[in-house]
Amino acid sequence: MKLGLVGLGKMGLNMRERLRERGLEAIGYDPHVAASDASSLEALVEALPSPRAVWVMVPAGAPTRKVIEQLSLLLAPGDLVVDGGNSRFTDDKVHADILAAHDIRYLDCGVSGGVWGRQNGYALMAGGDTCDINRLMPVFHALRPDGEREDSFVHAGPVGAGHYAKMVHNGIEYGLMQAYAEGYELLAAEDLIVDVPAVLRAWSKGTVVRSWLLDLLVQALSGDPQLAAISGYTEDSGEGRWTVEEAIAHAVPAPVISAALFARFASRQDDSPAMKAVSALRNQFGGHAVRSAEPTGIV
Q1: Annotation marks residue 173 as catalytic
Q2: Catalytic option among 66, 173, 190, 246
Q3: pLDDT tens digit string along 250-272?
Q4: What is the pTM of this model?
């Protein structure tokens, strides 16, 4: 099987290399990457045998929509497109309909594994028709880790299910990272703890809180125990917001994921207006001392 990849960012490039290492032909196109195998999207499509399979790994939203629309005009009936980026699940029906108008098949696939996927394999959450899933199974097998398929691959349901599963996965990831981060800060605040990285490392085997995320935190601290070289400003790529919105839509309590998302918002405020308001209120009703704002030197 020969697969076309659109988007050769770090993750897409690693996926291409893992597929090749596992004996599958894979060619990629990315106008911004020197490692592109094709000079254009048209050239990529022309290089694939029919029926074609094209895996899209570009940013969610407008960039993905543009590629889907272009592919709808370049591919032929019976070809298959997979959106493996972090698209919102509600976009999947739109993408499937665009392609279906030209009798082109569509799958959505949530992909987890980050920059370590080439070495360790990727967890895959796919949505779409069973016949299309079976057709692409050699690719799924090559990308996922060795071992039981059920441990790293799921056909989650119809179109949209794969990205919905990945959205919830990333919401959980927000909560787990926030819990580890708060634990790290609490350990660092206590003078009794003389080696914070050592404590965290001691949790990595045998404890109920051991995980790959904990291993990555220990690794990050090994070179910079105070994380002095890293800003606390933390972006969110959308999935956390979408997870909270879905929790509201389904009336499902999600306080941990919600709090983790709001903590990321708070990280971007040099001087939180909300905390200023809390400080002012404490001063008003209780006479509690407030700190004056530092002079900026700006007139």
Answers
A1: yes
A2: 173
A3: 999 999 999 999 988 888 887 76
A4: 0.90
